[in-house]
Amino acid sequence: MKIGIDKIGFYTPHIYVDMNKLAVARNVEPEKFTIGIGQDKMAVPPITQDSVTLGANAALEIIDQADKEAIDFVIFGTETGIDHSKSGAVYIHHLLGLKPNARCVEVKHACYGATAGIQMAKGHVALNPESKVLVIGSDIARYGLNTGGESTQGAGAVALLISANPRIMTLENNSVSLTADIMDFWRPLYSDKALVDGKFSNEQYISFFQKVWEKYKEETGMDLEDFEAMCYHLPYTKMGLKAMRTVLEDASEEVQERLKEHYRVSTLYNRNVGNIYTGSLYLSLLSLLELNDDIKAGSRIGMFSYGSGAVGEFFSGILEENYKEHLLVKEHKDLFESRKEVTVEEYEQIFEKTLPTDGSNIELDINEDSATICLSGLTDDMRQYVNKMR
Ligand code: HMG
């Protein structure tokens, strides 16, 4: 039985800051951010968006009535969850109006959470071929103003519908995972900002990629020429390239050129959003699938998932006939075009505005936020969500 990705939804907040202007404000040459890091725009989450609303908005654009009746498992991958106990998946289940007889959980391992969710979903569909699983990767990347990681912040979510006989991509069963207990990036429970050893995290990302790729080649007998393209977890768009370059020389000139060009296309959406942690690899896949003009059905796409701390995995998928017809290219073009720029000062004010942590209530103005699903406030320590369509 073929199991894989049947639909892909995406959402990012309606405001962004220009990386050239952020560079000027931080006394850095703009090319460091736009070329050295590889980011043009950074999504800025307003206080009315959190990982739950971003995820629900991403799912909203792909879920129809038939899906609502078939989804019996919601897996919410996030590392910026909103509660230590209750899963964000339950809020999303409610906001989308899914059927009551469904299982809902939140999965955490840094940026690897959504990949773990996809592998669980595959197993679930293998045992229950009629079922559909909604897997969401949703996060807000926060390092802090004037920090080394600031240029790699971002916000957004990708929602994937995993089913039998998928219309976009069949996921292959070969995959290689790797785990090692390291401290390259983490976020203590008391903090809403991540801590990071930047250089070490880059080294570990590359080393994890090399190790899983070598083992994958050994186990499958495949090599670079068997892949039309490779997508990477993209904390910033230069990162995947740095990893890919370390193995490229094994391939012919033609294969190298093809992989580099497809890599470029796979970074276009991420360049304009920033790091969305769990969703980053799938945003890169979406960018490749929606923006390429030469990748044919039957092509194999490699995927490298990396979650600091650390877990890495290399796996692959085969594109289905007419996969392009099932993508929301126009909707995503409109989403990007409808965003509004904020100044660096406005971004800083938005960044500093956080929810109360002393138990007090707050009512938020959701009229400024163009999203369908928003956070409207806190009452007695309970988040209040609104779906404007209801
Ligand atoms: P930094 O110290 O600001 O930057 O840290 P740098 O000095 O290393 O420079 C970055 C690049 O810009 C370099 O290129 C420079 O040469 C270049 P490279 O040598 O690396 O190819 N550069 C220029 N290029 C053109 N024109 C110029 C210019 N000036 C400099 N004028 C760092 C960068 C990424 C470390 C920092 O932003 C950071 O700590 N970010 C957060 C951590 C991170 O993203 N790590 C990535 C791997 S870990 C991961 O992916 C997991 C993660 O997503 C979390 C999770 O799993 O949950 C983060």
From TrEMBL:
Domain Hydroxymethylglutaryl-coenzyme A synthase C-terminal: 180-252, 255-353
InterPro entries found in the cross-reference section: HMG_CoA_synt_C_dom (IPR013746), HMG_CoA_synth_N (IPR013528), HMG_CoA_synthase_prok (IPR011554), Thiolase-like (IPR016039)
Cited SUPFAM superfamilies: Thiolase-like
Top-level taxonomic group: Bacteria
N-terminal signal peptide: none
Keywords of this entry: Transferase
The Hydroxymethylglutaryl-coenzyme A synthase N-terminal domain, residue ranges: 2-165
Xref: CDD domains: init_cond_enzymes (cd00827)
Family the UniProt entry places it in: Belongs to the thiolase-like superfamily. HMG-CoA synthase family.
Protein name stated in the entry: Hydroxymethylglutaryl-CoA synthase
Organism of this sequence: Oceanobacillus caeni
